[in-house]
Amino acid sequence: MLARLPTWARWMLYAAAGVAVLTIVQGFDDTERLTAVTSSQAMLRWAVPIMLAGLGGLFSERAGVVNIGLEGMLILGTWFGAWGAINYGGWAGLATGMIGGALGGLVHAVATVTFGVDHIISGVAINVTAPGVTRFLSSEIFANYEGGSITQSPGTDGVGRFTFPLLAGGDLFGWESPDILGWFTRQDWFLVSDMTGLARGLVAQVSLATVLAFALVPLSAWVLWRTRFGLRLRICGEHPVGGESQGINIYLYKYYGVMISGGLAGLGGAFIASPELSGLYREGQTTGRGFIGLAALIFGNWRPSGTMAGALLFGYPFGIGLRDLDGSASHALLLVNTLALAAVTVWAVRRRRRFDAGLAAGLGLAAAVWYFMSSTVPNWWIDILPFVIVLLVLVFFSQRLRMPRADGLPYRRGES
Amino acid sequence: MNHTLARRVMLASAAPLAAVVIAVVLSSIVLLVSGSNPLAAYVDMVQHASKLETGVDIFNRATPLYLAGVAAAIGFRMNLFNIGVEGQYLLAFIVAAHVGALVALPSALHIAVILLTAMAVGGAFSGAAGVLKVTRGVNEVISTIMLNAVAISGLAAWWIVEWQAGGEIAATGGRVGTEPIDDSGLMPDINSWLEVFTREVGQGKRLTGMLVVAAVVGIAYHALLNRTVFGYDLRSSGANPSASHVGGVSPKRMVVAAMTLSGIVAGLVGMTELMETGYYPSNPITLLGFTGIAVALLGRNHPVGVAFAALIFAFLDISSGILQISGAAAREIVEIMKGVIILTAVIAYEVVRRVREREEATAAAEAMATAPAGAP
Predict the structure, then answer these.
(1) Cβ–Cβ of A120/B141 closer than 8 Å?
(2) Closest residue of A to B72, CA-based?
(3) Which residues, other chains included, contact B223 with Cβ-Cβ below 8 Å and sequence gap of 6+?
(4) CATH of the domain at A148
(5) How many whole angstroms separate alpha carbon B249 and alpha carbon B243?
(6) How many domains are contained in chain B?
(7) A211 touching B, CB under 8 A?
(8) Taking 60 as the threshold, does the pLDDT of residue A25 lie above it?
(9) Core-most of A76, A326, B5, B50, by most CB within 10 Å?
(10) Are residues B8 and B63 in the same domain?
């Protein structure tokens, strides 16, 4: 029955079910933070860089180039983004961050496409190099700014905010539209008001950079699956020799893919350095989010919507953890983990995968014991949750994931 | 024959040399653009490095880099990417620090317990990625990246809170860390070995005893790969798993073995610091694992090549310290040099590899053409 619904409706249902679970679960822990508006807004902000890195990975890997250099490109994005934002304002910062990341992508493309260096090796080299480049640039530039140093920049400027009309009462050509979600939220109906409150948090007073980032998801899907450019790019990742026989310049499209990849990661980096998250460039501020983006890409099965879902899923605990000083919300989240593992157990039992069922049940039991034995959860659990989720997804569902067929394989023109 | 050998050596060393030259040229341009005198900076660095005390520092830095490089190289020889050296060594570091502080033993035994603990933790954590690969088909690049986070932001962050020492360290050093290990567990320095050849080492510098361990690891790595059946199986399985499988070598076993061995060596990386300070601090030296991957790449996974690569990186790290004092240039320029060296080196190796392949193909074609008809 679910399968017959259109995709967007199915996703809405999943989201609603998720919120329902969260609402019920948080009741046990006497916290309202899981479905608080601040939480959904924080989730959004934290998801953006992860999502942009993931989308970056998508373009690169769809073109057949594995990009674990995303972290380095994110770092370049934070530096160039901060530099542009300080000197020329918020929008320029996003643009320069994008350019900085794309330069990293260019290096990756030169190494992997032109010279045929192994993708992982080149990616590692970029990850090692990028912090050095930004360190040097900071020592030359930010250290001379007032309030800057070798490791950080002065504060950055951001971009404007936007409230969606009709949904959250934003202006529509000067007309103050009704605040529909706000009205529902004020009614204080069980579950319904929780959901509308959460939803309103996602559409009221959001940064235009966030809007731009989320607009890039359908745009990426459209470009990759509905345009000639996208078809050619994807053939590089599926069957480059076949594409070559059709007269496609595989090298060129791989360059496009990897540079777009770097540009998107760089945009994510600029977002991290923008007031939405940090408000300055600081060394080490990406904290592995390039890798989490990669994780979101894998979680999303190399698709834009899935990558977005992964980024939101991974951004959520970070957004929660940030304000969760007493650890109660993280604790409630543990119950969600238990439920999810229970669902995996049921799935495995129905598939008659005995080992998987046992493993999932065991892990779920461990989470449940932890939940009932403790009243708070330390910070580090939130920090590693995305990585643990992806490890478990890979352990249980790796057969269901399908990466582009020629992803990571060397390609030389005229050799098959 | 001799001619080809000389040519091979030349081809093999041409690439890293070219990488270093290009790095020097590029960073000179960067320095000129930023208004510094590159020559003055390089002279300062080399002069500084030629001092005995700086030399000791360079070797102390090269030791963990070499170990990390060998750890990564073991994986590479089996076509495995152990990106997880970083997490493995930090996790091994903290566990070994804790275990070392718990026990009181005679010195040699105490040190052995600490090192073995570190090796066991590193090996187990890395081996887990190998098991995931062979049982679940999880790519080791992805799993080790994820396990890095689990180790560093998760387990190590948890345990440093759990095992935190009482007020003593915090009060004296102003730093937080695990309970310090008794002196019996700290490896003595090997200054006396060095002083056989030269004058007394001053400034309280201590040449780490881990240098000996690193040398042993390097020799063991060479011997294992080139002098044992296991090493042969490992290399052949890495080069062609299915052909090797036909020959009776289980590729799955080899994957787990290689990942575990890699992790065992990775576990030793943090020991240089532990043997010096005796505890796991809240801010241990990080990024050695990722740099180790770069070192392995630059050194072509060869025990001696990796040693040279580790020394180059350590030289850049340590000798650039003088730039802060002399003011000839920003010391961060070496970060750019390191990046350029590694990027150009991997590109140069690839180009050299292709040149060699083409030559072999041409040579084979010529041999075929001149061979008498009917010959195999």
Answers:
(1) yes
(2) A121
(3) B231
(4) 1.10.3470
(5) 9
(6) 2
(7) no
(8) yes
(9) A76
(10) no
Residue A317 amino acid letter = P
Give one word for B296, left, alpha or beta, with left for phi > 0 and alpha for psi -120 to 50: alpha
Placement of tokens 């990406």 in the chain: A286
Smallest Cβ distance to B290: which of A121, A128, A384?
A128
Backbone angles phi, psi at B320, to 5 degrees: -70, -15
Which residues of chain A make contact with B133, given a CB cutoff of 8 A? none
pLDDT (tens digit per residue) in B128-147: 999 999 998 888 888 998 99
For residues B86 and B189, membership in a common domain is answered with: yes
CB A164 within 8 A of CB A213: no
Long-range contacts of B323-327 (CB under 8 A, 24+ apart): B323/B41, B323/B44, B323/B45, B326/B40, B326/B44
Contact check, Cβ <8 Å, B343/A124: no
Among the partner residues A129, A140, A388, nearest to B34 by beta-carbon distance: A140
Burial of B372 (0-12, 13-18, 19+ CB in 10 A): exposed
Residues B133 and B267 in one domain: yes
Which of helix, strand or coil describes residue A303?
coil
Does the pLDDT value for residue B239 go beyond 80?
Answer: yes
**3-state helix vs strand vs coil in chain B, percent to 5:** 75, 0, 25
- Chain B positions with Cβ closer than 8 Å to A: 30, 34, 81, 83, 132, 136-138, 141-143, 145-150, 153-154, 157-158, 161, 290-291, 293-294, 297, 330-336, 338-340, 342-343, 346-347, 350-351, 354
CATH number of domain containing B250 = 1.10.3470
Q: What is the pTM of this model?
A: 0.89
- Rounded CA-CA distance B246/A272 in Å is 51
Q: Do B332 and A132 lie within an 8 Å CB cutoff? A: yes
Give the model's pLDDT for residue B125: 94
Q: Which residues in chain B have their CB less than 8 angstroms from residue A140's CB?
A: 34, 330
* Among chain B residues, CA nearest to A382: B154
B3 belongs to a structural domain: yes
Neighbours of B40 (CB within 10 A): 15
ipTM greater than cut 0.90: no
| Residue type at A177 in one-letter notation | S
Q: Are B19 and B341 in contact (CB under 8 A)?
A: yes
Q: Between chains, do B136 and A395 touch, taking CB under 8 Å as contact?
A: yes
